[in-house]
Amino acid sequence: MRHPILLTLCAAGVFGLSACDKSIDADAVDREFAGVNAIDGTGLNDVMLTAGDPDDAVAYFRRADTLDPDRIDLKRGLAKSLVRAKRSTEAVAAWSRVVAHEGAGPEDSVSLADALIRNNEWKRAEEVLNGIPPTHETYQRYRLEAMIADSNKQWQKADSFYETAVGLTTKPAPVLNNWGYSKLTRGDYQGAEKLFYDTLRHDPAMFTAKNNLVLARGAQGNYTLPVLHMTQVERAELLHTLGLSAIKRGDVEIGKGLLRNAIETHPQHFEAAATALAALEGPVTN
């Protein structure tokens, strides 16, 4: 006798759920998922910020921010994701909203300044940094201060900021590379060379620093590759850079030889080096 009763209860449960389904709308689902996000979203937020497609992270944080607009961590997540996605104009707007939030701190203003520099708004970035209390001393702040001083050709000020930034991080390779490039643009080739070696001591795999080091050596008339760990492709590309540096200094024959070496070294066809060499060796036509 129990079975008919049990079946009746189950049927009633099914019909009850069906009735509930009809009353559920998208807004209610959004509210429910917003609650879930508030409970266990922190771990997922971290994953979205560091892994996967940046545009997917933008979509995730944009939706989360819409569902819970009072949470500053979601606004920060959206702003950081836009920076990762190289959507600079949108990143500036997103960081501006973060800074306007009542829970914002000095580091949010630093991040806004960083987004402004990425968007080539140097003057605004300088104004934002000037508004941050001087007691807020961080690697990121001084790195940006150094870049702005560079853009204003305030070399002594830039060197001071770079030196401070290096002392505030355990991973100074990026800022050392920036500092070296600053020296390179000023014509201080020996100083630049030293800083690029320092960069590679901290990050031996950074190809940008390897290329910059070759530029600094080439500018001094030193056309030998430095003793560094490099792949065959990297070696070819560095020889190409060195060849162009030699040609720029007027040492055309040396440059040609370096370009030939680059073409022979590269495991595949090296279009850029081949084109440069052909331009130098080809007949002049009217």
List the helices and strands and how they pair.
Layout: H1 2-23, H2 26-50, H3 54-67, H4 72-84, H5 88-100, H6 106-118, H7 122-130, H8 139-151, H9 155-167, H10 173-186, H11 189-202, H12 207-219, H13 232-248, H14 252-265, H15 271-281
Characterise this structure.
Helices cover 76% and strands 0% of the residues. The longest helix is centred in the N-terminal third of the chain and has 25 residues, at 26-50. The protein has helices at residues 2-23, 26-50, 54-67, 72-84, 88-100, 106-118, 122-130, 139-151, 155-167, 173-186, 189-202, 207-219, 232-248, 252-265, 271-281.
Rg measurement, Å:
28 Å
Helix-strand makeup class: mainly alpha
Q: How much β-strand is present in the residues?
A: under 5%
CATH class of the domain at 53-124: Mainly Alpha
Average pLDDT metric: 87
Order of helices and strands: HHHHHHHHHHHHHHH
* Helical fraction: over 70%
Low-confidence stretches: 1-26, 28-40
Please give the largest β-sheet: none
* Separate helix tally: 15
CATH architecture of the domain at 53-124: Alpha Horseshoe
How far do the termini sit from each other?
106 Å
Chain oligomer state? single chain
- Described by the principal axes of the CA atoms, the overall outline is globular
The overall strand count is 0
Q: Please name the CATH topology of the domain at 53-124.
A: Serine Threonine Protein Phosphatase 5, Tetratricopeptide repeat
Protein name: Flp pilus assembly protein TadD
Pfam families: TPR_19
InterPro entries: TPR-like_helical_dom_sf (IPR011990)
